[in-house]
Amino acid sequence: MRNASDSIPSLADRRIFFTAKNRFGNPFRGRSRAQKQDPLRKLKEDELDLIFNNVFLDRERAEIVSLTESRLLDVDRGEVLRNSRYIRTFNL
């Protein structure tokens, strides 16, 4: 089976780039490396994993309750993280 790159040799060597535009018309290339490798963000993500690994699932009330506290994410011990009407959001 043939495709477009067979008939046009220059297309076979080209890389395909993501061409979405942001609201200002500039190409969107995702987050910068500085934001991805931010040590505080990594620490917050690890803390969030720790909090959700140590939770109590109250089946009677259908709630997820924190068993640990975190000053970094402002979570108290016993705080409801999720129930049928509420989901706690975290700013990382």
Instruction: Return the string of H and E elements.
Output: HHHHEEE
Provide the structure class: alpha+beta
Averaged pLDDT, please? 77
| CA(first)-CA(last) distance | 48 Å
Low-confidence stretches: none
Described by the principal axes of the CA atoms, the overall outline is elongated
Beta fraction: 5-15%
Which radius of gyration do the C-alpha atoms yield?
Answer: 23 Å
Main beta sheet = 3 strands, antiparallel
Residue share in helices? Answer: 25-40%
Order of strands in the sheet with most strands: 1-2-3
Q: What's the count of strands?
A: 3
Number of helices: 4
Annotate the secondary structure layout.
Layout: H1 4-7, H2 9-13, H3 33-36, H4 39-53, E1 55-58, E2 63-66, E3 80-82
Antiparallel strand pairs: 1-2, 2-3
Explain the overall architecture.
By secondary structure, this protein is of the alpha+beta class. It is 30% helix and 12% strand. The chain has 4 helices and 3 strands. It has helices at 4-7, 9-13, 33-36, 39-53, and strands at 55-58, 63-66, 80-82. Strands 1-2-3 form a 3-stranded antiparallel beta sheet. A hairpin with a 4-residue loop joins β1 (55-58) and β2. The mean pLDDT is 77.
Brief summary of the model shown:
By secondary structure, the chain is of the alpha+beta class.
